[in-house]
Amino acid sequence: MKALDLHGCGTALLTPFKGGEVDYESFAATVDWQVETGIDFLVPLGTTGETPTLSESEKLQVLEVTLQHAKGRPVMAGVGSNSVKGTLDNIRLLQDADAFLVVVPFYNKPPQRGMYEYFKAVAGATEKPIVLYNVPGRTGSNIEPETVLALAKDVPNIIGIKEASGKIEQSLKIMAGRPEGFKLLSGNDEDTLELMKQGADGVISVASNVFPSAMADFIHALQAGKIEEATRMDARLKPLFKALFVEPNPIPAKAAMAQLGLMENSLRLPLVKATEATEALLQQTLKDLF
């Protein structure tokens, strides 16, 4: 298994559309911008990327563009589905990624032993690193710390978790019991300060789509132990963290990127454009930041 040290600030990349099709030119420019501004790793094809609306050929091309423009940054592709077969099909399709982000199966509402067996089966079918993704607000299921720790100890290529439950205590339990090298990455921008103060390894961020340099500086300050400086940065960024989730992600993020002139404000159904109130909130938030 290839060693992969995922830490720092990773971006859950948006997928830009133009005229209903993936805008690969804008996407390539976005990845270039992320790399140039100091982002540590890249996460295409996750929730923020509207991946359930993409075809197989689109997923493959999004990954190829990411890899071509990553300039050595690790690339972790979202591959999760609600079946072992579906997830393994995605892994085979996206086999050139450095690692795979695998969400807790959605809609099925599996028990903890089902989650354990599912992740064990998925990880057993690849030698590449697997990062678990816990986001109960999306999936309807929460993977408990005991299950995470059992997987961390029993399955060598399960190397970390993106924790987006919003339950700080849950993350603390994982960090307290994790084996050496197992990463905990915040899945919520607003939880990142507290989690990294307690030993988390970084964040997979939505806000870094919009303001990558500030997010990279914030995370790097935390890594350097500059807590007072990072706390000031967090206070400055908090309005952006909140504004990006006043409607379901990535609706506000797409609107913000369009306001910055970086991509078209285009989403695929069932997602729709932000409301006028959200647009106004983002406009003021961005004005205050920039």
List keywords for this structure.
eight-stranded parallel sheet, alpha/beta, 13 helices, 290 residues, two-stranded antiparallel ribbon, globular
What does this structure look like?
It contains 13 helices and ten strands. It has an eight-stranded parallel sheet with strand order 4-1-10-9-8-7-6-5. Strands 2-3 form a two-stranded antiparallel sheet.
Q: Note the total helix count.
A: 13
The rough form would be described as: globular
Tell me about the biggest sheet? 8 strands, parallel
Could you spell the SSE succession in H and E letters? EEEHEHEHEHEHHEHEHEHHHHH
Return the structural class: alpha/beta
Number of strands: 10
Which ranges are low-confidence, i.e. pLDDT below 50, for 5 or more consecutive residues? none
Share of residues in helices: 40-55%
For the termini, the CA-CA separation is 43 Å
Beta-strand residue fraction: 5-15%
The largest beta-sheet arranges its strands as 4-1-10-9-8-7-6-5
Mean pLDDT: 97
Radius of gyration: 18 Å
List the helices and strands and how they pair.
Blueprint lengths: L7 E5 L4 E2 L2 E2 L1 H13 L4 E3 L12 H14 L6 E3 L5 H10 L5 E5 L8 H13 L5 E5 L1 H4 L5 H10 L3 E6 L4 H10 L5 E4 L5 H6 L4 E4 L1 H4 L1 H12 L3 H17 L7 H9 L16 H14 L1
Parallel strand pairs: 1-4, 1-10, 5-6, 6-7, 7-8, 8-9, 9-10
Antiparallel strand pairs: 2-3
Helix pairs in contact: 1-2, 4-6, 6-7, 10-11, 11-13, 12-13
